[in-house]
Amino acid sequence: MQRHYIIAFFLIIPLFLTGFTLDNAIVPKEEIFAGGPPKDGIPALLEPKFVDAEKADFLSPEDQVIGVVLNGQPKAYPIKILNWHEVVNDDAGDTPIAVTF
Predict the structure, then answer these.
(1) Minimal CA–CA distance to 78: which of 63, 62, 60?
(2) Are 58 and 15 spatial neighbours (Cβ–Cβ below 8 Å)?
(3) Which residues contact 72 (CB under 8 A, 6 or more apart)?
């Protein structure tokens, strides 16, 4: 019986810490499960490598990118790569940037 209290404690406490509750859920609480990767399960790109647009043979013309021009320096971050990493920590000259979506 005590084991059930411990499990319930660890399941309920995060709800209070985040402010997230299921009070108005239309799906029964027992049918809601955690999903996706754990914390830090999607690694950020820390030192992205770039190629000239003409040499980016891994992209097709319809692929979307997030474009950034900072300090006169243009860069493109392909969505198909961001789908796997979600965050790129980069810099434009001396200016650090984080690219995410």
Answers:
(1) 63
(2) no
(3) none
Tokens at 18, concatenated:
């985040």
Q: Is there a contact between 68 and 92 (Cβ–Cβ < 8 Å)?
A: yes
SS3 label, residue 11: helix
What is the distance, to the nearest Å, from the Cα of residue 21 to the centroid of all Cα atoms in its chain?
22
Contact between 101 and 79 (Cβ < 8 Å): yes
Tokens 């190629």 — which residue? 51
Place of tokens 């000239």: 52
Whether residue 76 contacts residue 53, with contact meaning beta carbons closer than 8 Å, is answered with yes
Stated pTM of the model: 0.62
Task: Indicate the domain borders of the chain.
Answer: 2-100
SS3 content of the chain, % helix, strand, coil (to 5): 30, 25, 45
Which tens digits make up the pLDDT trace of 3-53? Answer: 544 555 455 555 555 667 778 889 888 888 777 777 778 888 899 999 998
